[in-house]
């Protein structure tokens, strides 16, 4: 398989080195003029300066969630596939997840019932609990190496913290993206108003940080604290590159790491740290989480073009409509000049968004994005070779394959 990624893409904290793959490691100035012209539009989108939304509910109501050459044309009318369910893959940690579900409400706290009610909208919105499940799987897989017979209280608390941070990020994402639906249900800010949504997200970040500090493990505290910073960095990078047809693949991958893969990587590494394994294994688990997270994000970006609004739980093509250019679009732009013109116009003409979606579908962009997702998945499976065979390692491998099955 021909590589479509920058092979030495480094997500280290000191710098991002793209020299090995021929990418510039300096800050690009290619679009300074363009960025200045769109400054007002960027501020409007990022700061949400559209119509203000106020809740009409009372507090009582709140209490009552990449290959070379031209690829063949794709038939995107995918039929239903017999995918393994996540519940099957997570069966080996099902009791851990049951206990987590019981603990989430108490750990959020009952002294702020309005904010807790808003958070529960996300907790109860059909989430798969993938991130805490990853914590439990990685914890049990590495605990076996360290000779632990059961999970520690730190393992379990880490899973709860990870789910709270993820939930907080979803609430804030929906506010920034002005999304009205999440997993087929109305978002927190749509139900309760933007102010409550922002406060609910802030509250959950703060509460998770307090529990994190009480773990009293400096390495894990630094690891998870960086994730919260990465969320903000990812949103800023995304907001500052809307409708930018010159965005590069490595920039997209960095943004995807900040917004998605960073939390998953911290989940799997933090689990191994609490198991007490050596640093080489915990680093492999970090790389597994990073590559799995990037692969998941690319697949999600593909599905934004190939699935219906009913399947997605949100309008199809919503990222492109908002100017967020993902892997399928970046690849399509390499050969479709008309697509660039349509995006530059910000879909001002009737039917232009639908035309852009069709161009992406038939230009090879989705095909090459699939190759990118597969490459990241292969790396994730390779990272798991540090673990001995076990039902927990098998589930970690199955999750990688499950992700790819979503785009077959």
TrEMBL record:
This is All-trans-nonaprenyl-diphosphate synthase. It comes from Salvia splendens. Signal peptide: none annotated. Belongs to the FPP/GGPP synthase family. PROSITE patterns: POLYPRENYL_SYNTHASE_1, POLYPRENYL_SYNTHASE_2. GO terms for molecular function: metal ion binding; prenyltransferase activity. Keywords: Isoprene biosynthesis, Magnesium, Metal-binding, Transferase. One of its GO terms (cellular component) is chloroplast. Its cofactor is Mg(2+). It holds the Pfam family polyprenyl_synt. GO terms for biological process: isoprenoid biosynthetic process; plastoquinone biosynthetic process.
């Amino acid at each position: 398989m021909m590589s479509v990624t920058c092979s030495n893409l480094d997500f280290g904290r000191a710098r991002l080195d793209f020299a090995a793959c021929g990418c510039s490691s300096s800050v690009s100035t290619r679009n300074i003029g363009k960025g200045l012209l769109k400054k007002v539009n960027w501020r409007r989108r990022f700061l949400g300066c559209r119509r203000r939304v106020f809740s009409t509910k009372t507090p009582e109501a709140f209490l009552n969630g990449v290959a070379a050459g031209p690829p063949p044309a794709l038939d995107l009318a995918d039929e239903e596939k017999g995918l393994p369910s996540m519940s099957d893959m997570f069966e080996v940690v099902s009791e851990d997840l049951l206990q987590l579900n019981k603990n989430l409400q108490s750990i959020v706290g009952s002294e702020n019932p309005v904010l807790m009610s808003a958070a529960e909208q996300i907790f109860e919105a059909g989430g798969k609990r993938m991130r805490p499940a990853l914590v439990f799987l990685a914890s049990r897989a590495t605990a076996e190496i360290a000779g632990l017979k059961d999970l520690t209280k730190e393992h379990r608390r880490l899973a709860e913290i990870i789910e709270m941070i993820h939930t907080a990020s979803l609430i804030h994402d929906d506010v920034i993206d002005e999304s009205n639906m999440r997993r087929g249900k109305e978002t927190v800010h749509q139900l309760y108003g933007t102010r409550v949504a922002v406060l609910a997200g802030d509250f959950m970040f703060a509460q998770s940080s307090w529990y994190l500090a009480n773990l009293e493990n400096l390495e894990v505290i630094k690891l998870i604290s960086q994730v919260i910073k990465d969320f903000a960095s990812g949103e800023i990078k995304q907001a500052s590159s809307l409708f930018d047809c010159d965005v590069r693949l490595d920039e997209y991958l960095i943004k995807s790491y900040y917004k998605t893969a960073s939390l998953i990587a911290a989940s799997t590494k933090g689990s191994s740290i609490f198991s007490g394994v050596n640093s080489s294994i915990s680093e492999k688990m970090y790389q597994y989480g990073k590559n799995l997270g990037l692969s998941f994000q690319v697949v999600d970006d593909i599905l934004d073009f190939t699935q219906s609004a009913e399947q997605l739980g949100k309008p199809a093509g919503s990222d492109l409509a908002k100017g967020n250019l993902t892997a399928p679009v970046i690849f399509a732009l390499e050969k479709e000049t008309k697509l660039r013109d349509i995006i530059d116009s910000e879909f001002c003409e009737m039917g232009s968004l639908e035309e852009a979606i069709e161009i992406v579908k038939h230009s090879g962009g989705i095909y090459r994005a699939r190759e990118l997702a597969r490459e990241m998945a292969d790396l994730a499976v390779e990272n798991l070779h540090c673990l001995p065979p076990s039902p927990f390692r098998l589930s970690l491998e199955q999750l990688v394959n499950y992700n790819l099955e979503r785009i077959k």
